[in-house]
Amino acid sequence: MNNYKTLQPISEQQLRSYRLSSTEEPSDEMLYAIMKKVATAAQKSSAHSREIHLKRLSEIAVPKVH
Questions:
Q1: What is the separation of C-alpha 3 from the centre of its chain, rounded to a whole number of angstroms?
Q2: Rounded Cα–Cα distance for residues 34 and 31 (Å)
Q3: What is the dihedral sign for C-alpha 47, 49, 55, 61?
């Protein structure tokens, strides 16, 4: 397997057009690009969830006075 630092970049168009299937193995470059995209999406989702969680905790901890 190649070192990830030596992999050639994959264009967004190539990434969007690739479909995982059991008949074709992804190249190292393609697999790296897919996993990087998934990791980025997971980090954004986690950060968003954390923000919502903390907001809800603060609403419970300090009730609003009406």
A1: 21
A2: 5
A3: negative
What token pair was written down for 24? Answer: 């074709």
pTM of the full structure: 0.63
Count CA atoms closer than 13 A to 34's CA, side-chain side.
14
Q: Which of 51, 56, 8 is nearest to 29 (CA)?
A: 8
Choose among 58, 2, 60: nearest CA to 29: 2
Output 53-62 pairs: Cβ under 8 A, ≥24 positions apart. none
What pLDDT, on a 0 to 100 scale, did the predictor assign at position 39? 95
At 45 the three-state DSSP class reads helix
